[in-house]
Automatic annotation (TrEMBL):
Compartments, as annotated in UniProt: Cell membrane
Pfam assignment, any one: TauE
Record protein name field: Probable membrane transporter protein
Gene Ontology, cellular component aspect: plasma membrane
Keywords: Cell membrane, Membrane, Transmembrane, Transmembrane helix, Transport
Segments crossing the lipid bilayer: 36-59, 71-89, 95-114, 126-144, 195-217, 224-249
Similarity comment: family membership: Belongs to the 4-toluene sulfonate uptake permease (TSUP) (TC 2.A.102) family.
């Protein structure tokens, strides 16, 4: 119990802190540890709920920098994609789902590191539709809505504080839709997650947000992001290995 509580706290703290500094990373870091200790369904539901609170707090802090036109362009497609994402979870065995979650996390890491620097510039509306849809699917299955939107930002030249700020309401809409879709599919049963997990997860999120707020602007964002990628890569590979072992065992 103590070890599990510490893992949940640390994962939430690191994820929240890094996202406060760089604009994304909450899901990439936290989803790996939570999937390992709570399973691919319970871990992502916890991440969805606590992440929703985190995004709402972030919105209050960055309200003036939000580009609502960008939010309106991306959020509807992300919300719509949560429905097939929830369906996929219902028809997939737990062990296989854990492999899928790990693979999605690995792919997301590839996208935000190597992939985003090889995207050709575009202003096509189809780019927004694709990014929004991919974000909704990734959020529902693996709790990582950010990477597709990072690629979209790279392709459209969308940079600066407005990008970080605008992601927060997009994430909020996506998370609400994800929880609604999972609830409709019978996947949201918060009673199966012990109360102390909710408490330690929430405390970790608050601690990370506070620390990130203090150091934002004082640390190199690229270095912080590199740490995020390394942590998430180790966790994602561990998730894949655990799921693959479970599949092999039968």
């Amino acid at each position: 119990m103590i070890v599990l509580a510490c893992v949940v706290f640390v994962m939430m703290m690191l994820g929240a802190g890094v996202q406060r500094v760089t604009g994304l990373g909450f899901g990439l870091v936290a989803a790996t540890g939570l999937s390992l200790v709570l399973g691919p369904v319970g871990g992502i539901v916890l991440l969805n709920v606590v992440g929703l609170v985190f995004n709402l707090v972030m919105i209050r802090q960055v309200w003036r920098e939000i580009s609502w036109s960008k939010v309106a362009l991306l959020a509807p497609w992300a919300a719509a994609a949560t429905i097939p994402g929830a369906w996929l979870i219902t028809v997939t065995p737990t062990a296989v789902l854990q492999v899928i979650v790990g693979v999605v996390l690995v792919a997301a890491l590839a996208v935000v590191t190597v992939g985003r620097n090889r995207i050709r510039p575009t202003s096509s509306r189809w780019a927004a539709i694709t990014a929004g849809t991919a974000s909704g699917l990734a959020a529902t299955v693996a709790g990582v809505p950010g990477p597709p939107l990072t690629v979209y930002a790279q392709a459209t030249g969308w940079k600066g504080p407005g990008f970080v700020a605008s992601l927060q309401p997009v994430f909020t809409v996506t998370t609400l839709a994800t929880l609604a879709a999972k609830g409709g599919a019978g996947l949201v049963d918060v009673s199966v997650i012990p109360w102390w997990v909710w408490v330690t997860g929430s405390l970790g999120m608050v601690t990370g947000l506070a620390a990130g707020t203090v150091i934002a602007g004082k640390v190199d964002e690229n270095r912080a992001f590199t740490v995020t990628v390394l942590l998430a890569a180790v966790g994602a590979l561990a998730v894949v290995a655990q799921g693959a072992a479970a599949v092999a065992a039968g």
